[in-house]
């Protein structure tokens, strides 16, 4: 099969289109012919080596974190899928590789594709959908009547999280540029801040939850909008001790993580708010919950641009510019 391989880490590194062996299929795994693959900033960060200490992928390996496609083969112990099923997934860490023609995915990480979505639309969902679900439902336990501030509302996670938060009954504030204000309002944002003209930290007050996806400066400013008992959930770091424990990092890495998050944890303790880092995980069960929301018309995908498979490097460069509205997708088949 054809696949885009990372042969060395580095910001200037380009993925190489290679012919490699088809994936093996174990008893609980499913071979999927990939039709489309979502492109995420996470792909670039892994390529650059930012996550080598906590996700030590050995080169060469195939990048890509979400996909849609058709089941071509199932393992002997697979019970929920059959050949011909249209599916989508965010494969588990250390099992990534959706910039390819085929991938082998554990049954527990896979879900039937929403029936009213195209393959391109479906491929845009898994990573951002699971990120928003795990942040707002699992960690924040967001309730009707609460207030949530979702940064970068026109981005991949933001466009999904706004819709999910509105479904949960929350009041939603977000930041975006002037050209995207109408988009985030259509998705359900109640309060929209043009980050080029306004400071969110002086406009927003007494929020229950902040979903942070930006830099450390924005992270610390976000503390000012939370009420006592509020929760700051960050998908951009720094990682916290709970994350280090859950992922089984070594004692040395646990120490490093504790030091990296010391400053923000000290501030949140003083302000009597909570802080947690989210590095989303694969979950077919949660994807099925998300599928029901999509099939019901409650959440709809936002796809900015579709690239051809051969231009995957260009797709990653486009995402890195930070101007995409929603998700960017590569059409593999």
Q: What brief labels describe this structure?
A:
333 residues; Quinone Oxidoreductase, Chain A, domain 1; Rossmann fold; 2 domains; 7-stranded mixed β-sheet; 6-stranded parallel β-sheet
Detailed description of the structure:
Strands 3, 5, 6, 7, 8, 15 and 16 form a seven-stranded mixed β-sheet that branches. This protein has a six-stranded parallel β-sheet with strand order 11-10-9-12-13-14, sandwiched between helices. A three-stranded antiparallel β-sheet has the order 2-1-4, with no helix packed on it. The protein has twelve helices and 16 strands. It folds into two domains: about 1-125 and about 300-330, Medium-chain alcohol dehydrogenases, catalytic domain (Quinone Oxidoreductase, Chain A, domain 1), CATH 3.90.180; about 130-275, Rossmann fold, CATH 3.40.50. The protein is of the alpha/beta class and about 325 residues long.
Question: Brief description of this entry?
Answer:
The protein has 333 residues and is an alpha/beta fold. The chain has helices at residues 41-48, 119-123, 126-139, 156-167, 181-187, 200-203, 216-222, 241-246, 251-260, 262-271, 284-295, 312-320; strands spanning 2-6, 16-19, 29-39, 61-62, 66-74, 86-89, 102-106, 110-112, 147-150, 171-176, 191-194, 207-212, 226-234, 274-277, 303-308, 327-331. The protein is built from twelve helices and 16 strands.
């Amino acid at each position: 099969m054809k696949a885009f391989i990372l042969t060395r880490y580095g910001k200037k590194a380009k993925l190489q289109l290679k012919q490699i062996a088809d994936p093996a299929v174990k008893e609980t795994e499913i071979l999927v012919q990939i039709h489309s693959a979502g492109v995420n900033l996470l792909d670039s960060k892994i390529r650059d080596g930012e996550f080598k200490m906590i996700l030590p992928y050995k080169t060469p390996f195939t990048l890509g974190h979400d996909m849609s496609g058709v089941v071509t083969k199932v393992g002997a112990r697979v019970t929920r899928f059959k050949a011909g099923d249209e599916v989508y997934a965010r494969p588990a860490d250390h099992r990534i590789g959706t910039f390819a023609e085929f991938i082998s995915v554990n049954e527990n990480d896979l879900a039937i594709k929403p029936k009213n979505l195209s393959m391109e639309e479906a491929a845009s969902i898994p990573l951002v959908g699971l990120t928003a679900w795990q942040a707002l439902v699992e960690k924040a336990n967001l309730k009707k009547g609460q207030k949530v501030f979702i940064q970068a509302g026109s981005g991949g996670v933001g466009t999904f999280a706004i819709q999910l938060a509105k479904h949960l009954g929350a009041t939603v504030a977000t930041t975006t540029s002037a050209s995207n204000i109408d988009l985030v309002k259509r998705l359900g944002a109640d309060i929209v801040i043009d980050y080029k003209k306004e400071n969110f930290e002086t406009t927003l007050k007494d929020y229950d939850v902040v979903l942070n996806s930006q830099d450390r400066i924005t992270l610390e400013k976000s503390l000012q909008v939370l009420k006592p008992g509020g929760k700051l959930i960050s998908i951009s770091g720094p990682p916290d001790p709970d994350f280090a424990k859950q992922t089984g990092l070594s004692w040395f890495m646990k120490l490093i993580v504790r030091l990296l998050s010391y400053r923000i944890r000290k501030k949140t303790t003083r302000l009597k708010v909570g802080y947690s880092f989210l590095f989303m995980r694969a979950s077919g069960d949660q994807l099925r919950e998300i599928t029901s929301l999509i099939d019901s018309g409650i959440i709809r995908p936002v796809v900015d641009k579709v690239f051809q498979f051969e231009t995957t490097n260009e797709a990653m460069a486009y995402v890195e510019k930070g101007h995409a509205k929603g998700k960017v997708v590569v059409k593999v088949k």
